[in-house]
Structure formats: structure tokens, C-alpha cells
Amino acid sequence: MSVLITGLILFFGVHTVSIVAPGWRERVVGRIGKAPWQGLYSVIAIVGLVLIVQGYAAARGQTAVLYQLPRAIQYLTMLLMLPVFPLLLATYLPGRIKTLMRHPMLAATKFWALAHLLANGTVADLVLFGSVLAWAVADRISLKRRPSRPAASLPAGHWNDVIAIVAGLAIYVGFFLGLHRWLVGMPLTVG
């Protein structure tokens, strides 16, 4: 569990700098430059992500079960996961979805984390998915109080929403057809 927690601290620590210390971030970027900051940020985030994956894989079968919801909740989980991939794609494909949602990646992250909290009830699940959900909520709240920074995306277009929805739903179906098992090591089951 310590590897998982260390990974979460590194990953969310670097992602939380803008939430808790935006002035400090800007001063450091001004001092060392944008590219070195992005490089350092990326290295810390990748190390954190690797530790999260390794730590969760090691802890998920060894921690106590805190809750087990009725199997019918699986349908709610599937429903919550439905917008996740279209929202993620809409983050980089500006269109009406991105305009309406403002921060589609954070919305996708919240849906993903909540769905996984409903489907999984061990201590490791609560630590991982609860941390992700709490961070996404905190980040979304903080975005209302801090100036926005430009993010990389493709040019705006009227087909971007269609592409995000169709490709996102294709990825969703792909997860049911084996992508989840291949990436995470656990099959998706319904019923």
C-alpha cells in the first residue's frame, strides 16, 4: 500500500501545485523556463503514475473489503462510464461539448472515479479512486478562482463533437470486448 500512496502523493502533488500555489508555479516557470518545468512536471507525474499502477496491482488483492454493493449497481457503473471517453476526447477536440462542460477531462475523471468506487470496495480501491475523485473535485473548484492557461488541442470544428462521441463510444465498447482486461488485468463482467 505504501507504493500506491507514494505514487498518489507524487502524481497528485505535482498536479496540485496550480491549486495550492499558482504564484509559486509561475515564479518557478519564470526562473527556469516553461520547457524545463514541463519536463520536471512530466517526469514526476510519470514516476507517480508508474508507482500508482504497481502499488494498486500489489494492494488490490491484499486489502480488506470495506463494502460490497448490490450487483445491480453494475448497471449504474456502466452508465457512469458511458460519457468518460467522449469527454476525454472532447478535451482535445474543441466543440460544443468542451464549451458546455468547460473542463471535460475533470468531468470524465469524476465519472470514472465514482463509477470505480461503486464497483470496487477494498481499502486499495477507496484510496485510489477516492483520491482521484477528491482531487478532481478540488481542482474543478480551484479553476473557478484562478486564471486559465491555454491547453493543447486541435482546431475547433463542428465535426469535433461527432468524432469525440463516436470514437469515445468505440473505446467504451472496446473496454467491454477485452481492452480493460488487457490494460488492467481484470475482465469487465455484467449480471
In brief:
By secondary structure, the chain is mostly helical.
List keywords for this structure.
single chain; 191 residues; globular
Uncertain segments of ≥5 residues (pLDDT<50)? none
Oligomeric grouping of the chains = single chain
Number of strands: 0
Largest sheet: none
Number of helices: 9
Helix content: over 70%
Terminal CA distance: 30 Å
Task: Please tell me what the overall shape is.
Answer: globular
| Cα Rg | 18 Å
List the helices and strands and how they pair.
Blueprint: H1 2-20, H2 22-32, H3 34-59, H4 73-81, H5 84-92, H6 96-101, H7 104-119, H8 123-143, H9 160-184
Helix pairs in contact: 1-2, 1-3, 1-8, 2-3, 4-7, 5-7, 5-9, 7-8
Question: Can you walk through the features of this model?
Answer:
- The chain has nine helices and no strands.
- The chain has about 190 residues and is mainly alpha-helical.
- It has two domains: about 1-60; about 65-190, no CATH class.
- Helix 1 (about 1-20) runs antiparallel to helix 3 (about 35-60), helix 2 (about 20-30) packs across helix 3 (about 35-60) and helix 4 packs antiparallel against helix 7 (about 105-120).
- The protein starts with a helix and ends in a 7-residue tail after the last helix.
